[in-house]
Amino acid sequence: MKQLSSGLAAHVASGATTLCWCWRLTRRDGERLGFTDHDHDLAFDGTVFEAAAGMTASEIRDSVGLSVDNLEVTSAMTSDRLSEADLAAGIYDNAAVEIFRVNWMDPDQRVLMRSGNLGEVKRSGIAFAAEVRGLAHALQETKGRLFQYACDADLGDARCKIALADPAFRGNGALSGIASPRRFTASGLTAFASSWFTHGLVTFTSGAASGQSVEVKQHVKAGEVVTIELWSAARLPLIPGQTFTITAGCDKRVATCRSKFSNVANFRGFPHMPGNDFLTSVSRPGSKSR
To answer: CATH number of the domain that 189 lies in?
Structure first.
């Protein structure tokens, strides 16, 4: 049951309403964007809700229990603040979504209808459809630690304790050639061996992608040519001379932890855990006991 303010309740009960929908997206970098299906911009809670965004939503359903209630929002990318390149680059992945029902004559009369996170986004030309997942989807995520061979810490976090600010694990580079939004050659990294930054993190410090961090799929050094391939696309446009920082990568194996980082004391996996071959083995006459 939604609790309406006295003003909004009286407005709804009047029978002649001036209601609209407002959507607010809060990206992981803290940037907030607002959109409304009204024909004029609205503003409340420090957010401007842009009109004529073409947003339409499927029916909002609330079910009893812990099942995830999803809805789909569709629109054309008519806003200068919402681009196909940003969607493709993952800028809006898991962004927080709030959906309001608002009296556009008096925006103080509003009610929050749904909170959730942005899920799968499908694009076709300038149109897109975005899944909005209810808050219950967080209950389906794995929590706590898993018993596994690989380390479950993030390189450089409080559990790993590696200092990524150390020049041995951090490089500063600039783009010298762009093959695609995911692949480019770079200058400034010839002092590092090939694959040193594989599984690491690139953070752009200039250009359109400034502030964006993307995981490194592959780092290859061939002579004096250094090539970086990313797992997902960088925000476009990428231009020669654009700068970035890059940190060393870790494949989560104990051998890498020992040889590359000398940090096996902080390894957060279970490399000596018996595997399936041990669990399914049987004793045989004449075999040595274990």
So the answer is: 2.40.10.170
Q: Assign 279 to helix, strand or coil.
A: helix
DSSP 40-89: S-EEETTEEEES----EE------SSSPPPEEEEEEE--STT--HHHHHT
CB 106 within 8 A of CB 9: no
pLDDT for the residue 69:
58
pLDDT digits (tens, 9 = 90+) for 13-34: 998 999 998 989 898 888 898 9
CA atoms of 35 and 48, how far apart (whole Å) = 8
77, 185: one domain: no
Q: Which residue has the tokens 């304790």?
A: 161
Number of domains in the chain: 2
Total residues found in the chain within this entry:
290
Asked if residue 65 belongs to a domain, the reply is yes
Asked whether residue 131 falls in the same domain as residue 176, the answer is: no
Residue 242 burial class via C-beta count within 10 angstroms: exposed 0-12, middle 13-18, buried 19 and up: buried
Domain membership of residue 289 (yes or no) is no
**116 and 232, same structural domain?**
no
Domain that holds residue 216: 167-247
Over residues 262-271, mean pLDDT: 95
Put simply, whether the predicted model's pTM sits higher than 0.90 gets the answer no
244 contacts 205 by C-beta, under 8 angstroms: yes
